[in-house]
Design a protein that fits this description.
By secondary structure, the chain is mainly beta. 8% of the residues lie in helices and 32% in strands. The chain contains one helix and ten strands; from the N terminus they run E-E-E-H-E-E-E-E-E-E-E. The protein has a five-stranded antiparallel sheet, with no helix packed on it. Strands 1-2-3 form a three-stranded antiparallel sheet. The chain has a two-stranded antiparallel sheet with strand order 5-6.
Length: 111
């Protein structure tokens, strides 16, 4: 792990590793490193309305988006089919009119 997890009990950020357990000095809560790894794997992607997104869903843009480094504007209401969820700042990969795009889930709604 390159970054220490936050305390699951008090959400404290000053956590340290004590041999096999993580320890929060603020609330004295201890938990195993395996629990922290399981929490990181269960990432959930949500659209602008709070609906859970999954690989293969169809989505619709909720606002006009300018494509960086191009004169293309993706219009509100444009549908993207068969999305793929990825980790990162732009968490949805899709194709619109045959061109690949990486979009943020906050600008999409589930179709």
């Amino acid at each position: 792990m390159d970054q220490m997890p936050k305390c699951p009990k008090c959400n404290g950020e000053y956590v340290y590793h004590d041999s096999v357990n993580f320890v929060c000095p603020d609330c004295s809560y201890e938990w195993s490193g395996e629990d922290a790894a399981e929490e990181e794997e269960t990432k959930v992607w949500k659209d602008s309305n709070g609906n859970v997104l999954q690989d293969g869903d169809d989505v619709i843009l909720v606002k006009d988006l300018k494509v960086k480094g191009s004169s293309i504007v993706l219009k509100k209401g444009t549908k993207a089919k068969n999305i793929r969820l990825v980790d990162g700042d732009h968490d949805v990969d899709c194709k619109i009119d045959g061109q690949p795009f990486s979009l943020k889930s906050e600008f999409l709604k589930k179709a």
